[in-house]
Amino acid sequence: MAEAEGSNQKLLDAFWQINRQIRRSMAQSEEAAGEKRAQDKLAPGQERLLRLLLRHDGISQKELAERMRIRPASLSEVLTKLEQKQLVIKEQDPADRRRNRYQLTEVGKKAAEELQKERQDQGAAFFDILSLSERQELAQLLAKLNQEKVDERYL
What we know:
Layout: H1 2-32, H2 34-37, H3 44-55, E1 59-60, H4 61-68, H5 72-84, E2 88-92, E3 100-104, H6 106-127, H7 132-146
Antiparallel strand pairs: 1-3, 2-3
């Protein structure tokens, strides 16, 4: 029992150390791109939402909230800010007029593509030390911990 607890503590410590390294790496990357994007700085939640809309353009607010795992009220605030920045537009769902669907504007699509490229570059810089099979295994283990199916688009 004590051995298992020690092993769990070592895993948790290693996980937090990797988490710090990833955050540090991302912060350094953001600093490097800082002046370029300073005028249109987006909050992490806004960036995440743009990347999600890049993959699922025209999705409803309910579906967005579910995918982002946030409350609809919190999402509404993020969407409003992105609409004000003219990165996202809201359109009424023709099939259900009570529902709105969100799409990226051309400016929003360009911003989302830039964010996605930065994210891919950060991932490559951090995970290239692993072979493809090691990355796949890590993705499966993390998905299991996160209790979600592995999405192969991220491999």
